[in-house]
Amino acid sequence: MGRDQHTPLHEVDHTAQPTADPLAIRLEQLILGAERRYTPFQAARSAGVSMELASRFWRAMGFADIGQAKALTEADVLALRRLAGLVEAGLLSEPMAVQVARSTGQTTARLAEWQIDSFLEGLTEPPEPGMTRTEVTYPLVELLLPELEEFLVYVWRRQLAAATGRVVQAADDEEMVDRRLAVGFADLVGFTRLTRRLEEEELGELVEAFETTAADLVAAHGGRLIKTLGDEVLFCADDPGTAAEIALRLVETMEADPSMPELRVGMAFGTVTTRMGDVFGTTVNLASRLTSIAPKDAVLVDGALAEGLGRTGEAPVSEKEAEAQGAEERPYRFALQPMWQRPVRGLGVVEPWLLTRRASKIPG
Fold it and tell me: Could you say which of 54, 126, 272, 333 has the lowest number of CB atoms within 10 Å?
């Protein structure tokens, strides 16, 4: 929005002026459902908030400063009024309201970019010679908009219900923020070499196939995909058994696909701090380090995750224990093999465990 008194003049993006293209304006009005009526100052005044707070919200949502151009709509005013109202009512602090704006903006920005780049771009190819993409785009958006909007709200409500359920089941208030989770990284081996060998389109298809497969497997087996990083995915699960199943499924699925590179997975179990849909902390760092030292097509886990599998009876802590229990009496799902202790940058010396599926018969 406009430059507030705390923003140096050289930091304002004066090039981000609203477009004057007639079709772009028509599409904007179609999507937003309203015409441009307000400058940033007028919108802030109409919403009953200061320009400083309005600018903070606007930037948090990921939009560039637009000076005092008349580019905002009634919806922008309503959004400002709602966020400010939550602060005034004491339901959100001002920093939390800014976080809400930022997390929503970041998430939906990625979704919108994907829809345009990978979805609408293909659909708006002119169906007949002589037609322009411009002539196809408007009616297509007009048809898709209400359906995509309803689907977006549906998925958001489903995700909100699932996340709320996980939070209310936490043991105490502290655990709602700092929770014990299994965290895993799955990393494509030799991805840098692939970037030099494959064409851009081929590389894009490989990354999309990897991300899609990983997302489907993580969700299907009870985990949560935190984020994708091209050649790497970060996921988490509430318990070690679920995480172990996901990790091995990922390796097995990628190994069975000759078009995919080898995969390596590192996992750790412990306290994790969650912020804006992401996870942070020593446990996450340890999982990342274990991934970097994992063999190809293999899963390395830390001692806490190995202990968790042993505690729940899903893996024997040692072959001696497995023999004492008897394979028929205790059909373990997983096997654990201690690896050499080694120093891990920033985390000291750790003892990784190699996680595999349990063979039907204990090797003699």
Answer: 126
